[in-house]
């Protein structure tokens, strides 16, 4: 439950994030980490965001990047949008990455997750109705008999992919209840992965990735974080909250959500998992120690914000702000998908992506791809903050100079040792 003390802590957390009181999580462009990036084993198109190998995430990261920048009023380079639309296969789906778009896509290489990223980006950008309609039609053709979707067509459905597809359908203004296969709808497929009232109390509301060998559903945080957004009728970008909402919106109190309510129980599960994990989710590969699951934490924050539990979402976003550098700077090269999700998280929780601690997520994401066609003018508050952060003069210096000029006395005054520290990364 969100106690009064915790709500107060959330308010202080939101204020701290907005004020940029902590060290940045991101490495500035041109830093040593960026300089040590390993070259991609395949050529990286100039229109693509990021310099890492695009083989498995080219379309995914491009869609998220375009979407995140669009929410900040950035007009992307036409080449960046053209690259994304040019990756679409003739049947309407998208592959993870097609190095040669002049060649037909192999059906087995098409990717429901990448397609979901592309669809949500193109819907937000506008003007791409034909491409979006073709994608929706493709989703109908690759839907499984249980109503769900797999990562690649022809394999069993999974909770993550089904959640992402349902969100993409919602973004495209297509009711997933009307997308059916053998009498099972997309919503049937989604809810088929959710643990209900017969599960252990701690697992109620969670989503499974896939049933285990016995057919039992096992709670999976990664699947839960992406499927919960869809269960709440959400898609990207999640509507922006106000900063006051960030500090006060409590949503459904933990422990009171009905296990039969898909959205509320999913949100309750995620909040409890975040709270017990120090405001982040973890993952564990076979034979390895548990490690932070940054991406799932980011998706969980989006799901919580979408369901009205903005205060809980802020806690997770604040953890990412102070601990997410290994995610953003993985393998020595900036990950545009991570930056994009952080921008979407900040927006959804009422925080400022351009003053995310001491980092400007927007300019850092822009720097990973082609120069944008247009960027919005800085707001008055942003300009004021930038000027304040970059100033090396104490106000007393200005006052004394004014007095000296008025009296006609030339006085040299050194910089104040109490000048404000420039906090820009």
Keywords:
two-stranded antiparallel ribbon, Squalene cyclase C-terminal domain-containing protein, membrane, 425 residues, 2 domains, transmembrane helix, 18 helices, mainly alpha, 2% strand, Glycosyltransferase, single chain, disordered N terminus
Structure description:
Residues 369-388 are annotated as: Disordered. Keywords: Membrane, Signal, Transmembrane, Transmembrane helix. Residues 1-22 form the signal peptide. With 425 residues, the protein is an all-alpha fold. The chain has 2 domains: 4-376, Glycosyltransferase (Alpha/alpha barrel), CATH 1.50.10; 381-425, no CATH class. It has 18 helices and 4 strands. The protein has helices spanning 4-19, 32-35, 58-71, 78-86, 112-125, 129-141, 159-171, 186-191, 221-231, 243-248, 262-276, 294-306, 310-323, 325-328, 336-348, 361-366, 380-390, 395-407; strands at 180-181, 184-185, 282-283, 291-292. The strands form 2 sheets. A two-stranded antiparallel ribbon has the order 1-2. A hairpin with a 7-residue loop joins strand 3 (282-283) and strand 4 (291-292). Helix 3 packs parallel to helix 5, helix 11 (262-276) packs across helix 12 and helix 12 runs antiparallel to helix 13 (310-323). The longest helix is centred in the N-terminal third of the chain and has 16 residues, at 4-19. It is globular, with a radius of gyration of 23 Å. The two termini are 37 Å apart.
Strand and helix order: HHHHHHHEEHHHHEEHHHHHHH
Largest sheet: 2 strands, antiparallel
In percent, how much strand structure appears in the residues?
A: under 5%
- How far apart the termini lie comes to 37 Å
Structural classification: mainly alpha
Shape: globular
- The DSSP helix count reads 18
When the domains are counted, the total is 2
Mean pLDDT over the residues = 82
Going by CATH, the architecture of the largest domain would be Alpha/alpha barrel
InterPro entries: Terpenoid_cyclase/PrenylTrfase
Protein name: Squalene cyclase C-terminal domain-containing protein
Keywords: Membrane, Signal, Transmembrane, Transmembrane helix
């Amino acid at each position: 439950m969100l106690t009064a003390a915790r709500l107060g802590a959330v308010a202080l957390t939101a204020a701290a994030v907005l004020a940029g009181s902590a060290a940045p999580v991101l490495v500035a462009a041109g830093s040593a980490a960026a300089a040590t990036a390993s070259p991609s084993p395949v050529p990286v198109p100039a229109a693509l965001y990021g310099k890492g190998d695009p083989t498995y995430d080219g379309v995914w990261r491009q869609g998220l990047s375009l979407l995140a920048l669009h929410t900040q009023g950035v007009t992307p380079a036409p080449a960046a949008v053209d690259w994304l639309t040019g990756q679409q296969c003739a049947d309407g789906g998208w592959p993870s990455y097609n190095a040669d778009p002049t060649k037909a896509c192999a059906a087995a290489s098409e990717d429901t997750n990448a397609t979901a990223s592309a669809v949500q980006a193109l819907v937000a950008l506008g003007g791409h109705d034909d491409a979006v309609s073709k994608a929706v039609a493709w989703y109908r053709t690759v839907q499984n008999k249980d109503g769900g979707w797999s990562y690649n067509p022809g394999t069993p459905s999974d909770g993550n992919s089904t959640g992402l597809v349902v969100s993409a359908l919602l973004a495209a203004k297509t009711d997933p209840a009307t997308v059916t296969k053998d009498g099972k709808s997309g919503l049937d497929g989604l809810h088929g992965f959710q643990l209900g009232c017969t599960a252990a109390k701690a697992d109620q509301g969670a989503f499974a990735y896939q049933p285990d060998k016995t057919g039992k559903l096992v709670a999976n945080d990664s699947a839960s974080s992406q499927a919960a957004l869809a269960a709440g009728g959400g898609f990207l970008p999640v509507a922006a909250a106000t900063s006051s909402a960030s500090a006060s919106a409590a949503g459904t109190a933990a422990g009171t959500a009905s296990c039969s309510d898909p959205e509320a129980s999913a949100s309750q599960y995620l909040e409890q998992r975040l709270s017990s994990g120090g405001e982040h989710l973890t993952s564990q590969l076979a034979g390895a120690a548990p490690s932070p699951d940054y991406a799932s934490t980011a998706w969980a924050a989006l799901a919580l914000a979408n369901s009205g539990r903005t205060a809980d979402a802020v806690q997770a976003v604040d953890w990412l702000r102070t601990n997410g550098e290994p995610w953003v700077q993985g393998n020595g090269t900036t990950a545009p998908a991570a930056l994009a999700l952080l921008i979407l998280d900040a927006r959804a929780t009422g925080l400022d992506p351009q003053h995310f601690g001491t980092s400007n997520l927007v300019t850092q994401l822009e720097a990973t791809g082609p120069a944008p066609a247009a960027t919005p003018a800085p707001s008055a508050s942003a300009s004021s903050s930038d000027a304040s952060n970059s100033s090396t003069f104490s106000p007393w210096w200005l006052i004394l100079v004014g007095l000296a000029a008025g009296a006609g006395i030339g006085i040299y005054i050194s910089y104040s040792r109490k000048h404000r520290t420039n906090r820009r990364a």
